[in-house]
């Protein structure tokens, strides 16, 4: 694989002339080429500024003090004038509780409906606290115990017998060894008997490796941030033994319309910039309408409290409002004049609401005819949705 620097940008290092570049492929892709850099890469400047300004005590192996981690998540301005962007919009107390519990010997469980920024917060916590958000176990019905403990490189195991070199550590084991955070995504999707492997890890802080007659003892700084969806149907409940090892923080849906609009605005701006969609799209008015539709359908009541509406089967989370708007921005940028209008968001909006083609369509039609139609200033949205059929 050859790497050519983007045109117009001079390469920062001239490759040595004696070796053709094809023989020495760069081991790291330049950050600007990564589709989605890790939080610690994307916000390296903010993290460095925070570390420099941070004179409060840091728990063992933490890159930042709990105060600085909280500032990193919620945003703020440092004494030297550096702006720290808000990653999470919500209650300061919730974030403080989450950060404080990671400084104890109890693990953290972020619970909430889909799209309430559980994964997002856990990534930023790991980036700010350990400087590495990449130690992740993705929970699924098929997650094996090896993902929480260790596995083997079978070729080596057969050739050399059990040895440390043949052992393949899980992200959890690596976090125990370096004293860092490890993330466990969608904990309740992991089969109950596999989840149990975490219980002894979290209480003993030791991972036995009987094959090598040894054990790995967690270094100070090790902890687990898990996420779970409290709407998942038919998944494994957390056993009470495991639940006791976690401090649970419930991430709520945004409290007010203004909060939710702010989150969508901010994230659509960031996503748009990273996709290099022509900037300066005046999307705010459209964002407010989309978020209003979401909140009314979610709550079963119009925001003025006058009309009850039926709720569709979909969760209609903030995350989904973000993707509806990002779609609208892309349409407007590539096929319009750059200004997001009703017909740029209508298709994605209807797609987000109507997940079940029969029941949800009825719910949506009713909302369209009883609520959207009656709002004079929404006539363009009404027309755009009607035109979709
Ligand atoms: N309160 C919030 N503050 C900031 N961003 C939020 C908030 N709620 C949702 N988001 C955004 O929603 C998106 C999806 O969140 P995600 O972490 O994937 O949800 P979950 O894991 O809870 O299902 C993220 O891009 C995040 O920025
Ligand atoms: Mg998630």
Description of the structure:
With 389 residues, the protein is of the alpha/beta class. It has two domains: 92-250, P-loop containing nucleotide triphosphate hydrolases (Rossmann fold, 3-Layer(aba) Sandwich), CATH 3.40.50; 257-387. It has helices spanning 39-42, 44-53, 66-74, 92-102, 118-130, 154-160, 171-178, 192-204, 240-243, 257-274, 284-299, 318-335, 342-353, 359-372, 379-387, and strands spanning 76-77, 83-84, 107-112, 136-138, 150-152, 167-169, 181-185, 206-209, 214-217, 223-229, 246-250. Strand 1 and strand 2 (83-84) form a beta hairpin. Helix 10 packs across helix 12 (318-335). Bound molecules: adenosine-5'-diphosphate and magnesium ion. Adenosine-5'-diphosphate (ADP) binds next to helix 5, helix 10 and helix 12.
Quickly list its features.
ATPase_dyneun-rel_AAA, five-stranded parallel β-sheet, single chain, disordered N terminus, binds adenosine-5'-diphosphate, Rossmann fold, 389 residues, ATPase, P-loop_NTPase, CbbQ/NirQ/NorQ/GpvN, alpha/beta, two-stranded antiparallel ribbon, binds magnesium ion, 2 domains
């Amino acid at each position: 694989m050859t790497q050519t620097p983007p045109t117009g940008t001079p390469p920062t290092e001239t490759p040595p002339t004696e070796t053709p570049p094809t023989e020495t492929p760069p081991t790291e892709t330049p950050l600007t080429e990564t589709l989605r850099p890790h939080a610690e890469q994307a916000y390296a400047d903010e993290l460095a500024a925070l570390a420099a300004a941070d004179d409060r005590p840091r728990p063992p192996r933490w890159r930042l003090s709990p105060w600085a981690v909280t500032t990193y998540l919620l945003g703020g301005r440092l004494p030297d004038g550096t702006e720290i962007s808000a990653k999470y919009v919500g209650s300061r107390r919730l974030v403080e509780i989450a950060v404080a519990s990671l400084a104890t010997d109890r693990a953290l469980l972020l619970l909430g409906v889909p799209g309430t920024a559980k994964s997002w917060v856990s990534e930023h916590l790991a980036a700010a606290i350990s400087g590495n958000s990449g130690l992740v176990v993705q929970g699924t019905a098929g997650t094996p115990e090896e993902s929480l403990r260790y596995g083997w490189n079978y070729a080596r195991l057969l050739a050399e017998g059990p040895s440390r070199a043949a052992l393949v550590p899980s992200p959890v084991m690596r976090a125990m060894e370096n004293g860092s955070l490890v993330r466990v995504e969608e904990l309740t999707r992991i089969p109950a008997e596999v989840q149990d492997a975490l219980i002894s890890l979290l209480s003993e802080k030791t991972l036995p490796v009987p094959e090598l007659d040894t054990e790995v003892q967690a270094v100070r700084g090790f902890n687990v941030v898990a996420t779970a969806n409290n709407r998942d149907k038919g998944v494994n409940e957390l056993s009470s033994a495991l639940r006791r090892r976690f401090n649970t923080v419930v991430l709520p849906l945004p409290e007010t319309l203004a909060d939710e609009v702010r989150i969508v605005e901010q994230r659509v701006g960031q996503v748009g910039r990273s996709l290099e969609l022509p900037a300066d799209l005046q999307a705010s008015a459209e964002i407010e309408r989309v978020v209003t539709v979401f909140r009314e359908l979610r709550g079963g009541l119009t925001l003025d409290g006058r009309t009850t509406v039926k709720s569709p089967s979909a969760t209609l989370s903030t995350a989904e409002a973000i993707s509806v708007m990002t779609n609208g921005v892309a349409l407007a940028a590539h096929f319009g004049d750059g200004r997001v209008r009703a017909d740029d968001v209508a298709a994605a909006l209807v797609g987000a609401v109507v997940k079940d083609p029969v029941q949800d369509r009825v719910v949506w039609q009713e909302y369209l005819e009883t609520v959207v139609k009656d709002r004079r200033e929404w006539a363009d949205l009404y027309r755009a949705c009607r035109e979709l059929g």
